[in-house]
């Protein structure tokens, strides 16, 4: 075994200082990184006799990043040209009520691998790069597609975007949550560095060391080449393959000839007619065509289910009309996506279905086709009876939870049952009700006109959120049964804070401070949290000038807030100057939830964040270093779970 020094990063230096981790060396074994980024197969094909039709069929999923619900020709787009996918829709099944499990990429990808709602996987937002305070990844302890299919003789492959870890240093196989850790046999062209906005032409910034196989190679074409190679290697055995495109995403770059082709088309530049996106999408469509042609050439098309879908709704709101919203939102345009299922000889062609479908259904569908066992805790259902036109799904309910700020969107959750949908604002608990049959654009909130329907769906959503347990409970709840001892407060030089004598006494605790008196006394900013010293502290901050709440994490004198969600969207909406107003902070290990009470006696959930890349208060070492801190000891309260 050899070792290689890991570059100094937030996780090797900052967290090491926080919790006493020793060393910055990572063992390197095998050639996993080369496999991941160059396309070298991890396993050779195992020769087997040709399989009879429909014996443990292959499953291929082609996901298109940020593809809007109506950006394919078969979904009504008249500008983009997607003849291969359109043909699959004519020869297979097109779903009109298919949904992503989340309005953003990483949570949906976690749901695809595990068959669970994102809230059960710990991945509820897009994962950040190494500059972030968090240290999140999809835990291999959660059973996923490889663990279900490999006992049934399947080879599993992942080609392309993974985005389920926040660690981008060290040997690829050693990184928390990497695809190999989840059991994938072959991992090809999965990002080595953080993907950011996208990178489409060789040399690829997030795939260092991967040479283009052709001059000015286009990444979507390279994924097609690798997919064809995987299929050929494993044609004589059952396989599962996820082709996870980096395109189209946010930063659009297409092949110049295709871009010019679309710029010359009538209507170019109008809603739903973006030349660069159209060029990128044509490349993805060509990729799908190459996959289909390979299946036919090898004679295994009739033993292969091919699914084409998206990880979330489209970002361009004008192009999403008449659906409301877009990527990052729980209105329809943020979560409704295309889904085309093609299976020659098994899925009767030319069908359009309004059955509810979701990303969470891919695992249980693959498990059923493989005659495998679906793990306990899976939320999805087997869609194969719908695809094969044998029976309806029997499902009428789907849930979403996105407890984060992005753009102007605030933490929300939603439930759809039948044709009705409730969207809940998690800060206030206000529910909106929409009739998606009569009003698919969600233009009219009918909560007051249909109170019984709202009540029924609201109860379902409340029960689901209680199960997910997404937030540290608010201060004052029964969860915090013990009063914390502070030992009094003393000024902490260089901070404007007062720090307690006693250390943090539990990994789960809640802090509050009365704010109205401090505001009246001229305090423009009120802070609440924990501190080791002036260079190491974690606080939530209320600014009366901004009428908003944000957070601050300092470690070794550096601000560690890169990649933090934009809680500035709260500015102008939080007023803690009224009598009885309070600022609250609840901590559960590395997860922090900020609360505010504007003087009503009821806590509002403002935002949550994770600091696991630096601090985890489940660690006694961390607790022994940190003490409670606030702008003033007067009106301060601390309770322990």
UniProtKB/TrEMBL annotation:
Residues 57-370 form the Sulfatase N-terminal domain. Its cofactor is Ca(2+). Keywords: Calcium, Hydrolase, Metal-binding, Signal. The keyword Hydrolase applies. PROSITE patterns: SULFATASE_1, SULFATASE_2, TAT. GO terms for molecular function: arylsulfatase activity; metal ion binding. Belongs to the sulfatase family. This is Arylsulfatase A-like enzyme. It comes from Nocardioides aromaticivorans.
